[in-house]
TrEMBL record:
It comes from the Bacteria. The lineage of its organism: Bacteria, Pseudomonadati, Pseudomonadota, Alphaproteobacteria, Rhodobacterales. This is DUF2849 domain-containing protein. InterPro entries: DUF2849.
Length: 99
């Protein structure tokens, strides 16, 4: 018996800045996890990942990350993904300075 599919978001790193980015439903990249497209179908998730991976002039390291529907949009499930939403940990700038 196969496992139930866990919803996903497509995430990667912006090629030039290195920031964590998420693919939105309208095929743009956002730095806000809550604006990411929450994909609830396994086949659709694989298609979105292939499409994202082909955009090598914009991003690197695209992969599917587990997420759940939250009050304001998708929320990360795992510690690693929650950590990535906060930005670099070695100095306070960007997302960390704002928080």
């Amino acid at each position: 018996m196969s496992r139930k599919f866990t919803p996903k978001v497509v995430t990667a790193n912006a090629l030039l800045e290195g920031d964590v980015v998420y693919l939105t439903a309208d095929d743009t990249w956002t730095r806000d996890h809550a604006q990411a497209e929450l994909i609830e179908d396994e086949a659709h998730a694989q298609i979105r990942l292939v499409d994202a991976s082909a955009r090598a002039n914009e991003i690197v390291g695209a992969y599917l990350a587990d997420a759940v529907a939250g009050e304001n949009g998708p929320e990360p499930v795992h510690f690693r993904e929650a950590f990535r939403t906060r930005g670099p940990s070695n100095y306070a700038h960007g997302k960390q300075a704002e928080g």
